[in-house]
Amino acid sequence: MNTLGRRQFTAALAAGMALPQLALAADTALPVPASLPAAAGIAFAKKEPLVLLVSLPGCPFCELVRRNYLLPAQRDGSMHAWQINISDRTAPLVGFDGKVTTAAAQVAAWKAGFTPTVLFLGPAGQDLAERLVGLSSVDFYGAYLDERLAQARKAVVALR
Hints:
The chain is of the alpha+beta class. The chain has two domains: 1-29; 31-159, Glutaredoxin. The chain has helices at 3-27, 36-45, 60-75, 103-110, 138-159, and strands at 50-55, 81-85, 92-94, 100-102, 117-121, 132-133.
């Protein structure tokens, strides 16, 4: 194989290996809210808490939480989750106070700088259950998520 042929082969091989990763990232993306009050209002109308994943691009633990827990629950209709990117300093985000901010600034205000963090919020942005911070045990993560979601759902009912 000549030098040009090797380069083309290598480029094609690298592109072929990258495509599944790009597809995986697209498949595991959760919706990103433009307005936290609007997202919380949609959830509250369904008698649900706002489930919000604080994520970081390239974070393997965030990807694991999305792919193995949040997306399957979303697909089977048992939960609807959103995500915000901890490093997004450009896209406007309407905060619970009605002011325009960014995801990075909102995460800093919440002091939720560790990823992944799953928040369970009420219609005014209040915590309805303890935050699920990090991924310490894959074996028990589903149970921790279910426990906090049940607690947040009870709090939503109490708010009505």
